[in-house]
Amino acid sequence: MDPWRPAPIVYLVGEEVFMADQEYTPISCDDHDRLEDVSVRKQEVELEFDRQGVRQRERGLVSDVYTANGAEWVRLTGAGGELEIRMDELVGMREVG
Fold it and tell me: Can you say how many angstroms the Cα of residue 93 is from the centroid of all Cα atoms in its chain?
């Protein structure tokens, strides 16, 4: 490690750790609007996302859409509790029911 280079900043979000130097790539406005829409309508969804190279799917309600630490996030509340997903990890969304 270069002693003149400051150590990276690390954020803990839920149980996930994100490095501050992981550049955020904004999602499309249409996708962002869909997330806000299902949140307001309390519509159950299935989100598919890629977390550190592992494709995952979770089902629940979008309980929050917010910005923190230079990135946009979605909070999904499901049977297993709350999960915070960085929006640029999202691969797909499907309304359920």
Answer: 12
Task: Determine the Cα–Cα distance for residues 56 and 63; give it in Å rounded to an integer.
Answer: 19
Supply the range of the domain harboring residue 81: 25-95
| Distances 38 to 8, 58, 61, 75 between C-alpha atoms, Å | 35, 15, 8, 12
Q: Which residues pair with 96 in a beta bridge?
A: none
Provide the whole-model pTM: 0.77
- The pLDDT tens digits of the residues spanning 21-46 come to 578 999 999 999 999 999 999 999 99
Give the chain's domain count. 1
β-partners of residue 39 are: none
Is residue 63 situated within a structural domain? yes
